[in-house]
Amino acid sequence: MSSLKSLLIIISFCSFISAQGMMNGYGIGSLFENQGSISGSNGLSKLSSAFMDNVSISNPSTWQNLNYTYLSVSYSFDEALLKEPSSLNGYSSLSNISWILPLKSKSSLGISLAPYSDQRINVLSDSTITFVAFGDTLESTKKIKRVGGVVSFKLGGSRVLNSKFTFGNTLNFLFGSSRNSESIQISSSSTVIQKSRQRYTGLLNEAFLSFKINQKNIIFASYLMTVNPLNIANKRKPLFDDVNNNEYHDYFSPLYDFPNPDSLTYPDEKRLANVHSPSSYHLAFETRLNNRSVLSVEIGSYSDSYEENTIIQIPLNKTISSLSTQKILFTRFSDKLSLNIVDKFITRLGFQNKKSILEKDTKDIITEIGVSAGLGFRFKKMGNQIDFNYYYGLRDYKMLKKIEYFQQFQLSTSLADLWFVKRRQK
Amino acid sequence: MKVSCTNWLFSSLFILLVSLSCSDDPINSNLDHSSLRLDTLSITNLSFQNYLVYPNNGSNSNLYLGRKNNIESSAIFISMETPNPVNYWAILRDTNVTVDSIRLEISSTDSTLSFESLPNLYFSPDSHFSENNSTYLDFENLSFSSWSSLGTPRIKMDLNDSSNFISTTLVWSIDTLKEALYDTLDTNLVRTFSLQFLENDSNFIELLSEEAGYQTTDPKVLIYYRFETSSEDTTVYDTTFRTIYSASDLSILKPDQNTVPSDKIGLSNGLGLRAKMFVTIPIDSFSIGSVIKSANLLIPIDSSISDSNYKIIIDPIESESQYVDSSVIYLEDPYISYGAPYRDFNSTTNDKYIISIKKYLQNVLLENVNNVGFKIVADSNNDPFKSSWLNLTELNNKPVIKIVYVKP
Question: Which of A74, A120, A35 minimizes the C-alpha distance to A372?
Fold first, then answer.
């Protein structure tokens, strides 16, 4: 009972002191892969084994090591706290659904659906603009609000090439939409709003390779390339005066938005090519400390060869052009044969350091450090698994002299079963 | 053990779900890159032109009789139609009742009316005027020789409980019209009353028209009558009355248009004086998609010759039906205007007239309406003997349209 009380106090404390957010305002939003852990069952790992022994959910070149078909669902809670002035942003959403089918330990197939980028952000101008109009002093404040994001549907698989090498690949179909609302409020009068809607399409390809040096050490590598850069179909709606203050351009009594929506001609949708064209590589070295524990080191580098445009309003007016990541991970897997309940748990610990560079030709830097701790519990004969992962860290926006504290809690459930195998009648 | 472990797990999850709730605080940041900008534009190249229309005062809430400010109202017309659904005129021929008296009453807010300044009442069973269209042109040779003269009224002063003045009522006895007011042989009976001063002197009176309020102060005819109801052992005599309100009324205004200054731009209902304002709107000065936050037209008023608090209507012109000559008097307004929602009104202050033309200007930018100009007219409820004159001569106080807009 005392342990329950302790946990409640710790969780409550964490939820008040820490927190996520500004990253959503850069470029096409915060890339989910760079936000923390990809799913609760993977911890901070991208390539090295974390889900279970020799398997990473996000690395297809390890999927053939699964004994059963897995359906894994992960839910994520994210919070970010920016201090001075204080701003707390938090939300929760489904973070990953994966279905992985191992085929005779030689190959595998898998599909997954996950957020690719999160664009939810609400930015308020940090100063009031004074404007003198015909002798009257008008004060205006601006606001940019963006909602929505890009979703990724991945189709992947792997093939064991020989006893040392396994090759994996995923095709990453990007799609989704977002809505942008840019507004200006003049003194105490109604707000003038410009709205736009974006639809996204793109295709990425990521190749994976695992190289088993010996029974103890494995090297993993991945390379992401853009097949079709992310394209945007942008529909910019006419500017309007939101007289009834409901943020919609409507014309209902008693307060009518101006001008009347029926009096306007809506512009055609404009298509923009190459607003996001990422490429990245990741390398991981995994060493086995004993028959249940592994230690791994991962490094990664990401760059975005996007083309700048003046049509899409980016809330914070910058895009992350490159990112480097370093991770140290420790995982202790469960013991299937042990009768001790403690041995049924998987323990994951991780530390990561990131450095993002904004725009191609500036020295605007965001650094991030974070620690992660996770627990997984295997149950039932087939090895169903429930996983929790907590990630806490801080980002230092050096050019803005702002520090952001963030936390992420992921909850994941993985169900194992035999698929496509005819069952014997009971 | 199993139960407590499950409880422990679900309690933890519940606390997490509650404590990690969604929040959406705005982040403060520099938004200079936001394209939305405030801007202003002044338009000063406004031109004005007066034009004349024969005055019609049918929708004014007052009836006028007499001469003032070079405008003469020679007669007032009031018509009484058949009330619907009950025709009270039929009481006059009802054999079951006894008509005691018939009265015509017209109210006034003037407490100084005296017997010396009261008009004579005339009656005709024919139609003589159209409330919305008749002008003095229709009554150039007006004669009451064929009308029934009913004399001057008595004055009834209405006071409240504190003996304060409420209104004055002019009451005419029209008992002699009992047969004429309900003539079953006349298939086109229109009961027209008219007021005129017997002598063309300097008298001037203001009465309340049917537009002044809802029925209570309308010109009206009251029929007082009595009837008896009998039962087995009693006969009851009862007296009562019925009211018939006027259907339309009109003062016939004739201005002396020779006295209208040709070098000034003015507005007056009594003079039939209206103005057209033309403005070249520099559409190219606005970015495409701009939204007008405010657009106020400011016209200086010559306070030395204008009446203050004068209500003026501005109505964008949709098209001109003909070339408008300022020396010609038009039977009806030569400009076809848009009306609602672009038509608007405001009252002048002592020295200026300010009105918003935001809706119209926005639609000019959107190319939904033509930019032909504006019709500026005095509101029909202004005192027709008053006027307002624009001050267009001061170089540092020119008419101007001040626009504040947001550009995308």
Answer: A35
B174 pLDDT band (50/70/90 cuts)? very high
What is the gyration radius of the CA atoms in chain B, in angstroms? 32
Hey, is the C-beta of B2 within 8 angstroms of any chain A C-beta? no
Q: What is the spatial distance between Cα A335 and Cα B379, in angstroms, rounded to a whole number?
A: 93
- Architecture of the CATH domain A2-417: Beta Barrel (2.40)
**Would you write out chain A's pLDDT as a tens digit for each of its 426 residues?**
455 455 445 444 444 333 347 889 999 999 988 888 888 888 999 999 999 889 999 999 999 999 999 999 999 888 888 887 788 888 888 899 999 999 988 999 999 999 999 998 999 998 898 999 998 899 999 999 999 999 999 999 999 999 999 999 999 999 999 999 999 998 888 999 999 999 999 999 999 999 999 999 999 999 999 999 999 999 999 999 999 888 889 887 777 899 988 888 888 899 999 999 999 999 999 999 998 999 999 999 999 999 988 888 899 999 999 999 999 999 999 887 777 888 889 999 999 999 999 987 667 899 999 999 999 998 887 788 999 999 999 999 988 888 999 999 999 999 988 887 776 766
Query: What's the total number of domains in chain B?
Result: 2
Answer yes or no: do B24 and A15 touch at CB < 8 A: no
Q: Which amino acid is at B193?
A: F
Both tokens of residue B160? 């409240």
Asked if the Cβ–Cβ distance from A134 to B42 is below 8 Å, we say yes
- Closest to B28 (Cβ–Cβ): which among A7, A121, A126? A126
- Residue to mutate among B6, B14, B29, with most A CBs inside 10 A, is B29
User: Using the beta-carbon criterion (under 8 Å), do B27 and A25 form an inter-chain contact?
Assistant: yes
DSSP one-letter code for A246: S
Q: Which DSSP state fits A55?
A: B
Predicted complex ipTM: 0.83
Q: Name which of A15, A127, A400 is nearest B19 (Cβ-Cβ).
A: A15
pLDDT at position A12 is 45
Q: Is B120 on the interface with A (CB under 8 A)?
A: no
Q: Cβ contacts of residue B162 below 8 Å, gap of 6+?
A: none
Name the residue facing A90 among B12, B13, B23 (closest C-beta): B23
- B242 lies in some domain: yes
Token pair, residue A3, equals 């342990």
Domain ranges, ordered by start, for chain A: 2-417
Residues B242 and B133 in one domain: yes
Phi-psi region of A414 (alpha: psi -120 to 50; beta: other; left: phi over 0): beta
Confidence (pTM): 0.82
Nearest-neighbour CA in chain B from A336: distance (Å)? 20
A3 interaction partners in chain B (CB closer than 8 Å): 8
Rg of chain A (C-alpha set): 24
Q: Which residues of B touch A183 (CB under 8 A)?
A: 36
SS3 (DSSP) at A120 = coil
pLDDT in tens, B199-245: 766 789 999 998 887 778 899 999 999 988 887 788 888 899 999 99
* Domain residue limits at B325: 37-54+272-407
B266 part of a folded domain: no
Residue B18 lies in a domain: no
Domain end marker among B226, B254, B282? B254
Q: Which of A126, A239, A411 lies closest to B30 in CB terms?
A: A126
Nearest residue in B to A400, CA atom: B29
Asked if B227 and B278 sit in the same domain, the reply is no
Chain B residues whose CB is inside 8 A of the A92 CB are: 20, 22
Rounded to whole angstroms, the Cα distance separating B242 from B101 reads 11
Tell me if residue B36 falls in helix, strand or coil: coil
Cβ distance A40 to A388 under 8 Å? yes
A244 vs A257: CA distance, rounded Å: 6
Q: Are residues B93 and B198 in the same domain?
A: yes
Query: Are residues B329 and B239 located together in one domain of the fold?
Result: no
